[in-house]
Amino acid sequence: MPSRRVSKDTPPAPRTVHRDAKQDQLAGFREDPAGEILTTDQGVRIANTDDSLHAGESGPTLLEDFHLREKIMRFDHERIPERVVHARGAGAHGYFQVYSSLAGYSSAGFLQDPEVKTPVFVRFSTVVGSRGSADTVRDVRGFAVKFYTNEGNFDLVGNNMPVFFIQDGIKFPDLVHALKPNPRKEIPQAQSAHDSFWDFVSLTPESAHMVMWVMSDRSLPRSYRMMEGFGVHTFRLINAKGVAHLVKFHWKPLLGVHALAWEEAQQIAGKDPDFHRRDLWEAIDSEALVEFELGLQVVAEEDAQKFGFDLLDPTKLLPEELVPVERVGRLVLDRNPTNYFAEVEQVAFCVGNVVPGIDFTNDPLLQARLFSYLDTQITRLGGPNFAELPINRPVVPVHNNQHDGFGRQTLNTGAANYLPNSVGGGFPRPAGPHEGGYAHRTERVSGHVVRARSPSFADHFSQARMFLASQSPIERAHLTDALAFELGKVQSEVVRQRVVDVLLMPVDPQLAETVARALGLSPSSKRTSQGTVANAGLPPSPTLSLVPVRNPTIATRRIAILAALGHIGRSLATVKRAFEKGGANVEIVAPSLGAVKGADEIDSPAVCSLLTAASVTYDAVLVADGEASSLVLAANEDARRFIAEAYRHCKTVGALGAGDQVLTAAGVDLASEGVVVGESAATFAAAFIAAAGQHRHWARDRQRA
Ligand code: HEM
Question: Which protein residue's CA is at the shortest distance from atom 24 of ligand 1?
Fold first, then answer.
């Protein structure tokens, strides 16, 4: 085909993006087998896929059976290497929209027009576990967003915690080796409760702040939809006039930030290891709210030094009380992937994927990441052409002279594959001054070439202390328990003692002493000299605490109603409707599946049995009315345990009418906070919704707080 006649004066095609641009592009790659005939990869129709070709019915299999060979060969190569970290994840499509133009901060096209919905793909993940590990382990969560913008892909590859373990990326392999299973035994899976992790962090005092975060409830999110996201590093936004601002990126979930209880998280790991993946999928499938606001903390370049810590140090956060988070846009996830492997597994995020108007800083952790992602994906995705995979393709055209390599798909038709050229008309040509070419910021740099850390990175404990001081008493109790649990799994007494002395003492002697007692140790009298202890008196930052609940709601929460033969179906149906009106997902749990006969001739459909369900996978539990039903449930050990665990995990529990006998049989104190009982279905429903909107009733756990 003759090529388009263009000259250097021909303006490039305008680059616009609409909400469905990515879906339209993906549609061209989708395969739908409905109504179709089975074929080989070559398109040849197959008449029999159950028997291979033999020489005689009991004879040897013949090599000429091309279908057998192709089918087995393809199966043999289905696996690809899992991500070296963040191997387990779940993803979804959606869009991002700014509330108003951010032109004052950034020239990035997708941040200009509140009418524009930019398609996105998001992958949430755990960090340490393998691809098949459980979702609810104690770990950092990844929060990676790929924006398919009108100027190319921008990836915001963040975590659900605003700081990191190390200050320089050269230590990342050491950190991950220490975190991952022991190389000789390949145990333990998906957890930091082992010697090598605590050995490493106790010899790396810069990790103190992150250790506080990981031991806090933040590492046990209730749902991917209920956790914050952070870009961690300080980035730069640059406007059309070339003025730069430093920026920290945040994601704020509209459903609030909520955590699981540690015991609950461990039980869910057995009952439903896919808990978070399932939650995300089902929420999107049922068109429930999965929404986050993009937040920016913007700092003028000249103010970079005014906070008493270095903004380039990724072990420090910028307290919201010092620089408030401006909520500038919303991220809506509203479409599940059509194929897990092709989308969630093959997506390749890279911190280096930026668009004009967004730039980096000299954060040494960020700088190492700029290399790591592209590099690892060459191995993980089998060669350098992974940007051509459907999920990774930008929705704007790609033109360059990078070609060939394993799995190349594009048919480059240009006459020349180099620049400068004349035989190809000089194309693809670099962008002119007003054509949106990426321009790295101009920065004066001077100094000696040194392999050393900036002295401004030396304070490792002030913010760890600030984080701890910002926790409510119950959160502090959880954090202390977490340390006692993790260190209790550490075999080496030397390592345990070092953690107490070197990491915990400089953060908080009381914390160190409590943990030491739980481990049968005592904190060493000599204080460590490692790490500088400065700015001891940073004030607490209330936004770092998850208590109190800032947006009480039952929307998208899971409520279990226990019922048995002889329950009152009418009142059950009334409260169920009220909960569903509030946006909750309600499931009836009974001794066995199917229709549960009501004493009032109104049956209730049980979708789970006491055998398959456990209250750890629900947010609130109540017992239906009915004398006969209550007698059955009170005598049923599984039912009593169902309720007792919900009560122990400080969830809202309740009973309609005679159902209160079941609560009592399960050991519930009917007078305690978050226990709702009542006769009238309507009044009961309102009280239960108010209590369940609080999510947890920590007063019940007062002895630990
Ligand atoms: C020098 C430090 C770091 C290095 C070298 C590094 C390296 C990597 C590598 C090699 C992967 C696997 C990527 C793939 O196979 O596609 C990865 C994934 C990831 N990293 Fe990092 N990482 C570092 C620090 C961080 C930090 C500080 C964050 C958070 C701000 C982070 C967030 C993530 C996320 C979210 C993923 C998963 C991306 C996905 O869902 O595919 N990493 N990292």
Answer: 369
Residue with more model confidence, 430 or 11: 430
Query: Count of CB atoms within 10 A of residue 475's CB?
Result: 21
Ligand 1 lining (C-beta closer than 6 Å) = 83-86, 89, 123, 125, 142, 144, 157-159, 164, 169, 172, 232, 347-349, 365, 368-369, 372-373, 376-377, 380
Six-digit token string for 214: 């990981």
User: Which residues in 499-613 belong to E strands, given as ranges?
Assistant: 558-562, 585-590, 594-596, 604-606, 608-609
Instruction: Evaluate if residue 477 carries a pLDDT over 70.
Output: yes
Residues 56 and 59: their CA atoms lie apart, in Å, by 5
Q: What is the pLDDT of residue 598?
A: 98
- The answer on pLDDT for 529 being more than 80 is no
pLDDT tens-digit profile of 503-521? Answer: 999 999 999 999 999 999 9
Better-predicted residue by pLDDT, 9 or 466:
466
Best residue for ligand 1 mutational test, from 83, 120, 350, 381 (most atoms within 8 Å of Cβ): 83
Report yes or no on whether pTM surpasses 0.90.
yes
Q: How far is the CA of 306 from the centre of ligand 1 (A)?
A: 30
Burial of 5 from C-beta contacts in 10 A (0-12 / 13-18 / 19+) = exposed
The predicted structure's pLDDT at residue 10: 72
pLDDT band at 550 (very low <50, low <70, confident <90, very high): confident
- Ligand 1 midpoint to CA 626 (Å): 54
- Report which of 222, 176, 10 is spatially closest to residue 695, judged by C-alpha positions: 222
Angstrom distance (rounded) from CA 330 to CA 515 = 41
Q: Which atom of ligand 1 is closest in space to residue 170's alpha carbon?
A: 1
Whether the pLDDT of residue 276 is over 70: the answer is yes
**Placement of tokens 């590093």 in the chain:** 233
Q: How far is the CA of 134 from the centre of ligand 1 (A)?
A: 19
User: Cα(553)–Cα(691) distance, rounded to whole angstroms?
Assistant: 9
Encoded amino acid at 691, one letter: A
Confidence of residue 702 (pLDDT cuts 50, 70, 90): low
Q: How many residues does the chain have?
A: 705
pLDDT above 70 (res 691): yes
Report the chain's mean pLDDT, rounded to a whole number.
95
Residue 296's H or E segment, with its range, is: strand 291-300
Token reading at 282: 């089902």
Q: Is the model's pLDDT at 528 over the cut of 90?
A: no
Share of the chain above pLDDT 70, in %: 96
Distances (CA, A) of 520 to 205, 216, 466: 23, 22, 27
d(CA 366, CA 249): 14
The closest of 206, 19, 227 to 110, measured between CA atoms, is 19
What is the separation of C-alpha 605 from the centre of its chain, rounded to a whole number of angstroms? 34
Cα(457) to centroid of ligand 1, in Å?
22
Instruction: Write down the H helix ranges in 189-345.
Output: 195-202, 208-215, 262-271, 275-285, 340
Could you give the count of Cα atoms lying within 13 Å of 260 in the half-sphere of its Cβ?
26
Question: Is residue 528 within 8 Å of 506, Cβ to Cβ?
Answer: yes
The SS3 of residue 53 is coil
CB–CB of 500/516 below 8 Å? yes
**Encoded tokens for 464:** 């760890």
Q: Tell which phi-psi region holds residue 275, choosing left (phi > 0), alpha (psi between -120 and 50) or beta.
A: alpha
3-state secondary structure of 332: strand
- Report the C-alpha gap between 174 and 220 in whole angstroms: 24
Return the sign of the alpha-carbon dihedral for residues 626, 631, 634, 636: negative
Q: Just list the catalytic residues.
A: 86, 159
CA atoms within 13 A of residue 549's CA, in its CB half-sphere: 17
Phi then psi for residue 317, to 5 deg, are -110, 165
DSSP type of residue 582: T
Q: Which residues pair with 236 in a beta bridge?
A: 246, 359
- The answer to whether the beta carbons of residues 369 and 375 sit under 8 Å apart is no
